[in-house]
Recover the amino acids of this structure.
């Protein structure tokens, strides 16, 4: 009985193997496409983050200049108060 099943499986084996191989190739193709799409999306996000970081840096530089100007104004006012 085992031999009959073995022969039966061997008879269907090339077809089953071909179907299995086709399915594996299809899965591989989908995975490659998905990884490619993922890579593209990660690259886009990276560019967006770089742009946003540059905006934050620019804003911080402007704030630093503003704070320095405020401190300069405070020092000027302190000088005026000290020397009437």
């Amino acid at each position: 009985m085992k031999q009959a099943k073995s022969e039966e499986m061997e008879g269907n084996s090339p077809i089953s193997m071909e179907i299995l191989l086709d399915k594996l190739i299809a899965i591989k193709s989908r995975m490659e496409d998905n990884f490619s799409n993922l890579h593209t999306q990660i690259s886009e996000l990276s560019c967006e983050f770089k742009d946003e970081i540059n905006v934050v840096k620019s804003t911080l530089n402007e704030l630093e200049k503003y704070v320095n100007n405020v401190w300069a104004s405070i020092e000027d006012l302190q000088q005026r108060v000290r020397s009437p």
User: Anything to note?
Assistant: Residues 23 and 44 are 31 Å apart (CA to CA). The longest helix spans residues 2-82. The helical segments are 2-82.
